[in-house]
Amino acid sequence: MKLFTVASTVALFLASTQTVFAAGNTEIANFTNQTLSVLIIIASAACTLFLIKGGYAYITSTGKPDSLEHAKTTIRNALLGLVVVLGAAVISSLLNNAFTTPTSGLTSGQINMTPIVPSTPTGGLTQILLDAISGFLQNIVQSATKPLTDGIISFLTTTPSIVSNSVIFNFWLVIVGITDSLFALVIALLGFHLMSASTFGFGEIEFKNLLPRVGLAFLAANTSIFLADWVVQSCNVLVSAVLHATGGINNALITNAFDPATLSTGAAPLIMLIFMILFVILAIVLLLFYVSRLIIIALGAVLSPLIFLLWAVPKFTDFAEISIKTYITAVYTIFVHVVVIQLATAFLTVPGQVGTNSLISILVGIGLLFTLLKTPSIMMQLVFYTAGNGMVKKVGGQIINVITTDKSAAQAIEQAGAVNTPRKVIKA
Length: 428
Description:
Blueprint: H1 2-17, H2 26-59, H3 65-98, E1 111-112, H4 125-157, H5 166-200, H6 207-222, H7 224-246, H8 253-256, H9 270-311, H10 317-347, E2 348-349, H11 359-418
Parallel strand pairs: 1-2
């Protein structure tokens, strides 16, 4: 009865949502299918190894109930994991074939911005000085705006591949050689830690989890640049999918905030030129951020073997995980920026945006640049917030364990002291 209820619910859900599924993107579908094909191969090989290990443990577990239960768990988890991976491929195929173009009957949700018209100043000597300052600012705006916006758009559309760059790849090979040499030292130090943990009060390390962790770290370190390049390529695919679905980035508010070519001497108010200069300054800062992002991506790919080496050491696990999260955040910042730009362009209607230079369009462009500059810090705060929660939970758990242990010891002492032992009677 439960299975029938679940099947009916799923059927009703699919029937009710088939007409509102978004049209699938070909690039995303191809990328997902290729990734799932690789994951199926890896999962099949891993499942085979786990089945061999579980079968050997099952055969040699005669008279050992714990070993028998562990072998059964290993075999069951291996088969379930393989079924989940194969099920993901089946679900992906079904969803790709079920996507249809939506026919939404909703009205337009654009927000009409109220125009701001600056007042015209009176003539006189002050006006002459203002015209001179306006001419200087206008020269800066006309010479800097177009190159800056073109540079920002070029960084938004794609992120260069890491593996295809010979300089980055050669540097990575050098770091991999150093890391492989240090792995033997790390294994030796972990051995010392294992043998002296109980004596010196260090954190206990389970030997059955030590070798698989070191092996996984060694494998990840020697394939880290390919993992980093996969993250970059996945970001490029997502950006291409968004741009393909929204008609490109040529009509973005960044490029159409104002047209410096239409400025004429003495026609633009000084307040408008000041906001244009602010727009140019923010565009320079955003362009510097994109350049530093590329440097961070290259540096992270080169140093990634050392990060995975530190991940094998228990005390540096949190540092390595935060570094990996920070790297992924830096890569996917461009995707979030593209979504913000396309979303703002879609639902904000700026009056006089095309052909004329309105003050409200410049202010909207400045607000968009502020949002783009604030987005990376918000994403990093979310990363460190989750990491901080994990640390707080660990510390809280340790404190609770210490308090519980102290209370148990105190209660045991009190109970031992409260026991009245009978006195021995000495007979004369």
